[in-house]
Each structure stands twice: as structure tokens, then as C-alpha cells.
Amino acid sequence: MSMWARVFGRRSIENPTVPISSQEINRIFGVEQATAGVNVNEQTAMRNVAVFACIRILAETPASLPLLVYHRLANGGKERAYNHPTYPVLHDMANPEMTAMTLRETIQGHAVSWGNGYAYIVREHGWVKELWPLLPSRTKPERIKGELVYRVILPTGEPRTLDPNDVLHIPGFGFDGLKGYSPIQLAKEAIGLGLAAEEFGSRFFGQGTNLGGVVEHPNKLSQQAHENLKSSLAQKYQGLGKSHLLLLLEEGMKYQKIGVDPDSAQFLETRKYQVADIARLFRIPPHMIADLEHATFSNIEHQSIDFVVHTLRPWLVRWEQAINYKLFTPSERKHYFAEHMVDGLLRGDAKSRAEALSTLRQNGIISADEWRAIENMNPQEGGVGKVYLVNAAMVSVPSAAGEVVQPLEQKQVRSVETRGEDSGVYARLRLARAFNIAFIDVGQRIVRREKSDIIKVGLKVLDERNLDRFDRWLEDFYRDATGWIAKTITPLAHSYTESVHALVAEEIDALPGMTRALVEFVDQYVDAFTARYTSSSLGQLQHVIKRAIEDNADIAEAIQIRLTEWEERRPSKIAMNETMQLGNAVALTVLKEAGASRVRWVNTGSKTCPYCQPMDGRVVAIGNQFVHDGDALLSLEGEMKIYRDTTHPPLHQGCRCMIARG
Fold it and tell me: At residue 14, does pLDDT exceed 50?
């Protein structure tokens, strides 16, 4: 069980034994009365069937829509970011006890009824790990000295002040831009009238007298005669099987039928009006809460589309913008975003959908496989469904002017031919650039935690003027840091490895899919990275301390300067080096598994690099070194000493070279 689950208790966020404020007690027990004489709050309002139906629709429908995390592509498109840590939280399990739909349904229900929905954000190493709902009746945003905070009462009765970055807030309509208004409270009178009408009707049938007719006798009957008449009428005419029989009366008796009196008729009209009024409050088409009086087969479809566009869309935008702001870092927002899939709600009938898709297909906007994907069908075999078609009668403006325009298929074939044998290598280079931002983000999180821990804890040891103790603290810190650094980079390393493997497998026609050897290789790479990183950090700080002592400078200040330099520069260096280091190491591993005998050095970076240029095209037996420890590469610009056996690029900082099958 997570820490937050222990604090909140399993499933039940509400604990009836927890002391709460008198104001909340008043609201729960309905001290706020409508003019109609009934108590109205967010709980009692749902006793009204129309209110409950509207809230249920507005909670279930958005929560049931797929909420996906996408990665922005360089061409302006997007692709699902399955490997982003936030993806499963929004799409599958929000926390160990709630599915994503359950959590979103709960928060949306709060937002629709209370006007605000809240969730606590649990992070691990900077990534969003869990989301837990907060009761809106016990959560309040406030400004303290101009700073926004959220005051929360936990189920234990303990008050807690939360940072706004730790709270996902979905507000409804409001005027201050901070909190949404409760539609239940704003429409208290309308809902109260509906509740009062229901109570009146229940009492009318439960306690009142409702006669279907009367039998009038011209004379006064004795008690015995009255009992005999009542028994006779009951035996002959009472019951469903004796309905509609001819009634025979004697001694001048008359029968008078009683219909619905005007007061009762007005009562029924009131109930019908309140259903429409409540649907109007929540902007729900009446037919969706089973009020079909004015619905027709021709307008229900358009009413449903209108519901998606004008009722659901504002809520979906609120969710998406809140998620993008609270669950992604500033650097992530440039490349990742969350979005609902609403296509299924706008599909229309089969005929209209087929006509619309046919138009898109004929104009080359979608392919056959894209059409099949919209209809939840698998792609066609052999890739034939990827072709885009256009009407043969349609030509481009240059063609009409007499210019020759090659068909799209010919252009594609020609571009493939001109890419040459290293097309896969350049695809891997583009992949490395795409993953660069993710590695920068990981580097930032590692450096920020490293800086924070050293400043907050380590420098306090240094303040005691005990350098030996501080040096031991640094060694212990970096020995323990290997654990959380590995957890921080491992998900990204696995994702990048899987993507590189897919491209290399395509280059050499190998089977796709991660192998056990590659999984073990990633673990070894992570261990090697953490060892290199912590060793470099420790060595640099020890050198900084030594120089500060020699220069009689302030040691703490010198350390903080170096930490700030790391924060500014180190993440980008990590990203550039590790995308190339890991990418080429994975490629080499895949080539070995596929049985390749030789590998070739490909210079994809600057063709003017004096050291990479002579390496371009060099071929060695797989497993051998391109250059050895102690070698020196000579150029007109000088000599570059090699300090390690090099079986694959990069050769130096900023090197963009790759390897390919020889």
C-alpha cells in the first residue's frame, strides 16, 4: 500500500467517525433550505432522479472516453506515447486501488455537483506515479500572502496544506478563475421545487385518498345495508379481471366517475417542467434522461452531437489543460500532451459515416488502413492499405498549366532509391534527436535532486568545518545515489532501446521485439551509466574542494557554483552523449544477435570534423575495436588521444557518428 493510501484509507475517502466543521455538518444534513421547504445540498439533491441522471451522465461519459498521452512529431503530427510514465496513470490505473475511469468519474462527479474536483498527485523521482481523489467538501484553495495553497482535511481529521503543484484541480464555471460555482447551490430553488413535488406526490399516494368514483343512494342506509352494498360491489366489480363490467344499480342509486382534479393535473405539469429545468441546468438533452416528449428519430442524433460539442467539450478542455499543466514539466509540454478521443461519440449513423469516409478516401486524405482503423478493423495484409488514392480527373494547378508533375507513388520510390544503403542509419539518427529532449529531462531531474540534497544536507556538514566528515558524507551520498539515479533513467533507457532495436531489425530484416539479451544489456548499461555519473560527480567535487583550499576560497560557495554549472549544462551533455552511446551499443548488440560478421563506421555528423571524417567507412570484424586505448588520431588541427578501446561511436563529445552492418 502506498503512503497516500495509508493516509487516506482503502477506497473509502469518507470516514464517518472523523470530526468535521459545523458548516460542513449543516451542509450535509441540509440546514440550507429552499423556499419549497426541503433541504438541498450536493447529497440530498441526488435524491431527485433527474439531478442524479444528469450528474451520472456528466461523470460517466467523459471518464469512459480514452484519455491518451501523445508525442508531438516534427511534421506537426502526433503519436501515442505508450512509454511515457504518465500514460498508464491516465489510461489504465490511477492508483493501486482505482482504475483510471473510476478516478476520473469520481473527480468529474465532484466537479459537476460541487463545482470543483480535486486529486492529489503522487510523484516518484519527478514522474507522476499515482492520483488520489480529494473530497471537495474538505478541500479549499486559498491565497496566503499572495501564494496559492490548498487546505485539505484528511480522513484522520488532520488539516494539511498542499502545494498547488501537488493538486490536480478541475474547476467548473466561476468568476474568480480559482474556484467553480456549485450548480446545486445556484439552482437550489429549482431543485428544491422538484424534491418538494416528489415528496408531495409520495404523500399524496401514501397518505391521501384517491377515489375512482362514487355511488350515490337517494335514501339513508342502515349500517347493515351499507356493509351489504359495499360487499356486493367488491365481490362483483373489484379486481383486474372484473374491470369494464356493466354496473347494475338498484333503488335509484347513481354512479359518478371522478377524474384527475385540476390541482393534481397542475402537480403533474410541475413535475414535467422540473425535469426539463434540471436538464437545462446541466445542459443535458432531455432525451438522454428519458424525457422523450419532444424527441424524434430525426433530431436525436443531432442532439447527441450537440451534447458532445457544447456540453462535454468544455469539460474535456478543462481536464486536458489541467493535466498538461500539472502532470508534465515545462520541457515535457513542448513535446507531450494529453487528449481525449471523442471520435466515437461523433460517429453518426453507418450510412452517414460511410459517405463521409468515402469522400476523405477519394480525395487522398486517408488511406484504406486509416479508414479501417476508424472502424476498429485491422490493417490489410502486405501493406496494400497504406496507399493514398485520388480521383483520376483531379489534377494540380501546375499540371493544368502544362508542367509535368510526377505521381506520388513514383516520387516515393525515387526517394527510397536515393537514400542508399544507410537510410536506416539516418532513421536512427532522427530517433536519437527525438529522444534527446527526454534525456535532457531525465538529466535535469538527476542534477536537480543532486544539487538539492548536497545543498540542504551536505553543506550543513561542511558548516561544521569538518572536511573529513563532509568527504565521507559525499562518498556515502554518491554510493546511495546509484539507486535512485538508476530508477530515474531505466524507463527511458528501455523505451529508447526498444525503439532503436525496431529500426535496426528493419534495416537487416531481423525479427522485431526485445530479446532477453537486450533487456539484460539495458540493465548493464544503466549500471555503467550510474557508475560513470557518480564517479565523475564525486571526482569533480573533490577537485573543487582541493582547489578552494589551495586558493583559500569559500568551499561551500565553490561547490554551489559547480552545482549551478551542472544544472545549466550537464543535462544537454548527458542527452547528446547517451543517445549516441546507448543507440550505437544497442545497434551493435542487435547486429551480433543477427549474426553479422562486420560493422562499418558511418559519419552522419559534420563532414568537416577532422577526427570523424577519416573514420567514415572504416570496417572491422564485429567485436573488434575501431581504435584502441592509447591510439592517437592525427589531423591538420592536431592530435586526439584515445583513452578507451572503441567498438562503436561516439568518438568524442558531440560526435554524431553511427555504426551499420559492414
Answer: no
Per residue in 323-354, is it b (16+ CB within 10 Å) or e — as a string?
A: bbebbbeeebeebbbbbbebeebeeeeeeeee
Q: Is the pLDDT of residue 101 over 80?
A: yes
- Which grid cell is 341? 478521443
- Our measurement of the distance from residue 474's CA atom to the centroid of its chain's CA atoms, rounded to an integer in Å, reads 39
Residues 548-578 have pLDDT tens digits of 888 888 888 888 899 999 988 899 888 888 8
Cα–Cα distance for residue pair 94/170, rounded to 1 Å = 16
The string of DSSP letters for 111-136 reads HHHHSEEEEEEEEETTEEEEEEEE-G
Distances (CA, A) of 605 to 205, 615, 653: 86, 12, 12
With beta carbons less than 8 A apart as the criterion, state whether 648 and 605 touch.
no
Distance CA 534, CA 521 (A): 20
**Which three cell numbers, joined as nine digits, stand for 213?**
368514483
Q: Give 534-579 as a 3 state SS string.
A: HHHHHHHHHHHHHHHHHCCCCHHHHHHHHHHHHHHHHHHHHHHHHH
How many CB atoms lie under 10 A from the CB of residue 446? 24
- Cβ partners under 8 Å of residue 253, min gap 6: 215, 216, 217, 218
Nearest to 660 by CA among 617, 605, 610: 617
Task: Give me the sign of the Cα torsion angle 558, 560, 561, 565.
Answer: positive
Are the C-beta atoms of residues 626 and 637 closer than 8 Å to each other? no
Helix, strand, or coil here: 373? Answer: helix
DSSP assignment string, 158-215: -EEEE-GGGEEEEE-S-SSSSS---HHHHTHHHHHHHHHHHHHHHHHHHHS---SEEE
Q: What are the grid coordinates assigned to 180, written together?
A: 467553480
| Residue 583 CB coordination number (10 Å) | 26
Is there a contact between 70 and 76 (Cβ–Cβ < 8 Å)?
no
CA atoms of 633 and 658, how far apart (whole Å): 18
Q: Are 203 and 196 in contact (CB under 8 A)?
A: no
Cα 372 to Cα 214: distance, rounded to the nearest angstrom: 69
Are 102 and 94 spatial neighbours (Cβ–Cβ below 8 Å)? yes
Tell me, what's the pLDDT at 429?
85
Number of Cβ atoms within 10 Å of the Cβ of 8 = 22
Note the pLDDT of residue 309: 81
Q: What b-and-e string marks burial along 197-227, b requiring 16 or more CB atoms within 10 Å of the CB? A: bbeebeeeeeeeeeeeeeeeeeeeeeeeeee
